[in-house]
Amino acid sequence: MKKLLSLLPILLIISCSDGLKEISEYKLVERNGITYEVNSNKPFTGVGISEQTEYSNFSKNYYEEGKFIGWEEFHSNGNLYTKQFDSPLVFEMYSYDGQLEIKTLGDLHEVYHWNGQLKIRRIKDSWESYFDNGQLRDTGSCINEQKIGLWKTYNVNGDLVESKEYKNNEKQKCYFE
């Protein structure tokens, strides 16, 4: 048991480290759309670090075989602010105190209340919104940002208060805030 406990800190460090080489963005150069370390002919795989300035936050740019694949930007307190990776599409935005505010993963898009509760979830044309207590507020479908088909609306206690059918010619916007 003592051996297992003594290995725990090492296992935590290894699991938290992604093993990618990290170097300053100033030590990277782009040639013909491929990123290399300065004075190298091998496409760079790793993380390019950009230091915080008065005009931008500290950030990390990720490269795989010389191709840019994503980035992370941090608040001045060190907490993650935004991250985006393109394959699959991932985007997340966080508040200054580290609370997740927006999350996109492929066709899934979510917005969160101030308290961390889900506010809006959209998957392709399917739409759900929630009160800040976590209770479902309304559900339905949106096509081209217009409500379509059956929409159900609930009160803060979860009781159904309205069911309405929207037709193609009705102009009722889906608000995504």
Structure description:
It is built from one helix and 15 strands. With 177 residues, the protein is mainly beta. It has a single domain (2-166), classed as Outer Surface Protein A, domain 3 (Alpha-Beta Complex), CATH 3.90.930. The strands form two sheets. The protein has a 13-stranded mixed β-sheet, with no helix packed on it. Strands 2-3 form a two-stranded antiparallel sheet. Residues 1-17 have low confidence and may be disordered.
How is this structure best summarized?
Helix content is 8%, strand content 50%. With 177 residues, the chain is mostly beta strands. It has a single domain, classed as Outer Surface Protein A, domain 3 (Alpha-Beta Complex), CATH 3.90.930.
Topology:
Blueprint: H1 2-16, E1 22-24, E2 28-31, E3 34-37, E4 46-50, E5 59-64, E6 67-74, E7 80-86, E8 89-94, E9 100-105, E10 108-112, E11 118-123, E12 126-130, E13 136-143, E14 146-154, E15 160-166
Parallel strand pairs: 1-4
Antiparallel strand pairs: 2-3, 4-5, 5-6, 6-7, 7-8, 8-9, 9-10, 10-11, 11-12, 12-13, 13-14, 14-15
Keywords:
50% strand, two-stranded antiparallel ribbon, 177 residues, mainly beta, disordered N terminus, Outer Surface Protein A, domain 3
Write down the domain tally: 1
Encode the helix/strand succession as letters. HEEEEEEEEEEEEEEE
The chain-level mean pLDDT equals 83
Largest sheet: 13 strands, mixed
- Separation of the first and last Cα atoms: 51 Å
Morphology call: elongated
Which fold name is given in CATH as the topology? Outer Surface Protein A, domain 3
**Beta-strand segment tally:** 15
Number of helical segments with 4 or more residues: 1
The SS-based structural class is mainly beta
Per CATH, the architecture is Alpha-Beta Complex
Output the strand order for the largest sheet. Answer: 1-4-5-6-7-8-9-10-11-12-13-14-15
User: Which blocks of ≥5 consecutive residues have pLDDT under 50?
Assistant: 1-17
What gyration radius follows from the Cα positions, in whole Å? 22 Å
